[in-house]
Design a protein that fits this description.
Blueprint: E1 3-8, H1 14-22, E2 31-38, E3 41-48, H2 51-54, H3 57-62, E4 67-73, E5 88-90, E6 96-104, H4 107-116, H5 127-140, H6 149-162, E7 165-173, E8 177-182, E9 191-197, E10 200-206, H7 210-214, E11 218-222, E12 227-232, E13 237-241, H8 253-258, E14 264-265, E15 268-269, H9 270-288, E16 296-299, H10 305-315, E17 318-319, E18 323-325, H11 338-348, E19 349-351, E20 360-365, H12 372-383, E21 388-393, H13 421-428, E22 432-435, H14 438-445, H15 458-461, H16 471-481, H17 483-494
Parallel strand pairs: 16-17, 16-20, 20-21, 21-22
Antiparallel strand pairs: 1-4, 1-10, 2-3, 2-4, 5-6, 6-7, 7-8, 8-12, 9-10, 9-11, 12-13, 14-15, 18-19
Helix pairs in contact: 4-5, 5-6, 9-10, 9-14, 11-12
């Protein structure tokens, strides 16, 4: 998962991009980068690390220009080297910069084709570099001189025909303007904002609406599945819809876990979705476990708070904060290595004993992925004196890897893979375990946008929207996402 920003304004954009990226830090903790442009040249700063570590005062002063883009990353494909920090750049044609959120499912085929037939050199193993070179090749084949909006739209349409997977992309064509587009299924999010500057309009595209808020851009609309926007350096907006097959199928896990609760994605409030997840989950508890003896509901901070509060309200029991979170520990399920994840959990949470002692406690989490965090949290609750520890997940069992840009582990590292609810309950040490129903989750999320035709729910259902995810592909994915492979990439990134 990554976060991206693109701005075309009438003033310097470096501070706006930086501020917006800080609101998207939750989407990537491995690397960050900003590229800006003015008539005197292109200015770049990118490296591994958090935003606060990558940029200092000197860097910001050097990032000049009224057109720019930014990116925060964690790798779902490629390695962890600083050379794979984005935005990427190619100098032909014109000079093109790219920031990408998502994952290509036909990366290997595209990389081979680019090298052998398109004669374009790839210097990394990143699918983002592949996307950049596919676009560059298709644009170069269509222009002779200054590129037109039609040239750009035709190049993106050709890219859609060649590329499969989930992707939201921001491109900067040096000297001409900003391009933004979304995959034909709308899996990965992308939103357009605008801001009045006197008589002129400035534009911004971002992964989440919260990035618009801090820069005082107003939500204009979501970029539609397969849609391309071109904003030239004068601030003129051009729009084009892909003529091929499209669907409106955003990733449902954005609402479960990844997105900030104060974001709106595809006209759907993340906060409202999580409230409704709690309502649905409470309804399931009442129906499936009517004789429960739950005395208090406690969330696993932070993502599950909203759902947990509604569970408590609808069950008519107390809601309490039972864990204090250390805010300086990263998200555990994307950390490579079981030992590192275990240590991180112990550093991340501390229990408030008085909220547990002698009580039957229902712990509510947004989801259960590997189960290691759940197991340790249940132990923390018992050590704090809980009489019984029940566990509820606001999402269904995660049984399948995500292939469209969320770095969920290999299938055999998912606790729900090939296990029943009773077996999972025993493994994590809960006295009772209940999962959200998938249809209930869909109802909770799809409350306000009738244009959405479905969701990418593949990590729960195993149904992959692009129809090109084979058993062989999943095996290769498992090899690349194993803990051993991640440790190797991490080592390479340090050498």
């Amino acid at each position: 998962m990554c976060g991206l920003i693109g701005i075309v304004a009438k003033k310097e954009v470096n501070q706006d991009i930086y501020d917006a990226l800080t609101l998207l830090q939750h989407r990537g903790q491995d690397a960050a980068g900003i590229i800006t442009w003015n008539k005197e040249g292109l200015y770049t700063r990118k490296s591994n690390g958090l935003i606060r570590d990558v940029f200092n005062q000197d860097h910001m002063e050097q990032l000049k220009g009224n057109v720019g883009m930014g990116h925060v990353r964690y790798p779902t494909a490629g390695g962890a080297q600083s050379s794979e920090a984005q935005p990427f750049y190619v100098n032909s044609p014109y000079g093109i910069c790219l920031a990408h959120n998502g994952n290509l499912t036909n990366y290997e085929e595209l990389a081979k084709h680019l090298s052998t037939r398109d004669r374009r050199h790839l210097s990394t193993k990143s699918d983002s570099e592949v996307l950049l070179n596919v676009f560059a090749h298709e644009l170069q084949a269509r222009v002779n001189g200054k590129p037109s909006a039609k040239n750009i739209f035709d190049a993106v349409d050709a890219l859609h025909e060649r590329c499969s997977g989930g992707y939201a992309v921001v491109l900067m064509i040096v000297g001409f303007g900003l391009v933004a587009f979304r995959d034909p299924n709308g899996i990965r999010p992308l939103i357009l904002g605008k801001r009045s500057n006197g008589k002129e309009i400035e534009y911004m595209v971002a992964s989440e609406s919260v990035a618009l808020d801090v820069t005082q851009f107003e939500i204009d609309r979501d970029v539609l599945p397969g849609e391309t926007l071109f904003i030239n350096n004068d601030g003129d907006l051009h729009q084009h819809n892909f003529v091929g097959q499209t669907s409106y199928s955003p990733c449902i896990f954005e609402f479960v876990y990844f997105a900030r609760p104060d974001s709106v994605i595809d006209k759907l409030s993340v906060y409202k979705a999580r409230l409704r997840m709690g309502e649905e989950l409470a309804g399931q508890i009442v129906r499936k476990w009517p004789e429960n003896d739950i005395e208090v509901v406690i969330p696993i901070p932070d993502t599950s708070r909203t759902a947990a509060s509604q569970v408590a309200y609808h069950l008519g029991v107390k809601y309490r904060e039972g864990f204090i979170k250390n805010r300086y520990v990263g998200r555990t399920f994307i950390m490579p290595g079981q030992e590192e994840r275990d240590n991180s959990v112990r550093r991340k949470l501390n229990a408030i004993d008085l909220e547990f002692k002698g009580k039957n406690v229902l712990l509510v989490d947004d989801s259960i992925v590997r189960g290691t965090t759940s197991k340790q949290i249940i132990k923390l609750a018992r050590d704090a004196g809980a009489r019984k520890v029940y566990f509820a997940s606001a999402a269904p069992p995660v049984r399948h890897p995500s292939v469209y840009g969320i770095d969920m582990p290999a299938a055999d590292e998912l606790i729900a893979n090939k296990k029943t609810t009773q077996e999972i309950q025993k493994e994590i040490g809960a006295d009772h375990l209940i999962y959200q129903d998938l249809e209930a989750l869909k109802r909770a999320v799809s409350h306000d946008n009738s244009s959405i035709t479905g969701f990418d729910d593949s990590c729960f259902s195993g149904n992959y929207i692009t129809n090109d995810v084979s058993v062989e592909y999943l095996k290769e994915l498992q090899n690349s996402r194993s803990d051993a492979a991640k440790r190797q990439r991490k080592t390479e990134g340090l050498t």
